[in-house]
Design a protein that fits this description.
12 helices; mainly alpha; about 85% helix
Length: about 260
């Protein structure tokens, strides 16, 4: 376990010694801040219209902060993560190949599992920092409103699992090339395919439609954003992470033999 945490510390230090972590966090915070301001401003306008409607007709309009603010924000966070995560994973192995340190890493006493686990945890910690920034924004809603915290926590659980899938897939593609740009393109392309695959289900029937819907990333995160924790969604994300890490291990094993 000590070897794993040594890898984690090394990767975290590498992230913050380079501009990558700062740029990713700053861009992510800025985009989320824009969405937060826009959605909250729309909610405030609708609340004012609801108050006027009540004064005129004596009937109140139901305004739900979770459905109208928090859920859209969480879904937007998932979309932004789709674009940002490939930049987190692009360097994990590709940079090692480019700089030539991959030979030292492969011939060290560390096992493939320790290397992969350490790099994955480090990337997951950086992703968790991204989610922590969004959580600070949402805390303002509790100061001025009374949202339900349970659907919000389930939404963040879904985002963490979704991010784990993104990172595991990005880690896999990072082992396949020494070019970070290629790693970004391959990761984003594959993630986008899994994101939109359920569109094929709209034009298909039977087994094909069900398989396309199940493989899609969007359908599973949608349940979490509603506050619904379905075991099938958790199994899907954990299975996808495990499969991607297994393929990563096979790829690293081939690199070790070449090294």
């Amino acid at each position: 376990m000590r070897n794993v945490w040594n890898i984690v510390r090394k990767e975290i230090n590498s992230y913050f010694r380079s501009p990558i972590a700062y740029i990713v966090l700053a861009v992510f915070a800025g985009i989320f801040g824009f969405f937060f301001y826009s959605i909250l401003a729309m909610f405030v306008r609708q609340s004012m219209m609801a108050a006027q409607y009540m004064q005129m007709y004596g009937q109140s309009m139901h305004m739900n902060v979770n459905e109208m603010v928090i859920r859209p924000l969480l879904m937007n966070t998932a979309v932004v993560s789709l674009f940002m995560v490939p930049f987190i994973t692009m360097r994990l192995f590709a940079e090692e190949k480019k700089t030539g340190t991959i030979e030292l890493l492969m011939t060290s006493p560390l096992t493939d599992l320790q290397i992969i686990t350490g790099k994955f945890i480090a990337a997951l910690l950086l992703y968790a920092c991204m989610l922590a920034i969004t959580f600070l924004y949402l805390l303002l809603l509790f100061q001025y409103g009374n949202p339900d915290w349970k659907p919000m926590l389930s939404g963040y659980l879904g985002l963490l699992l979704l991010g784990g899938c993104f990172l595991a897939i990005g880690l896999m593609f990072s082992t396949m090339t020494g070019n970070q740009l290629i790693a970004v393109v391959l990761t984003f392309g594959f993630l986008l395919f899994l994101w939109v695959i359920d569109w094929a289900g709209e034009y298909a029937t039977g087994t094909v439609a069900e398989v396309a819907k199940y493989l899609s990333l969007t359908g599973h995160i949608d349940n979490f954003s509603k506050g619904v924790i379905d075991l099938r969604d958790g199994v899907y994300y954990v299975s996808l992470i495990a499969l991607a890490l297994f393929m990563t291990a096979r790829s690293v094993e081939s690199v070790r033999w070449r090294a």
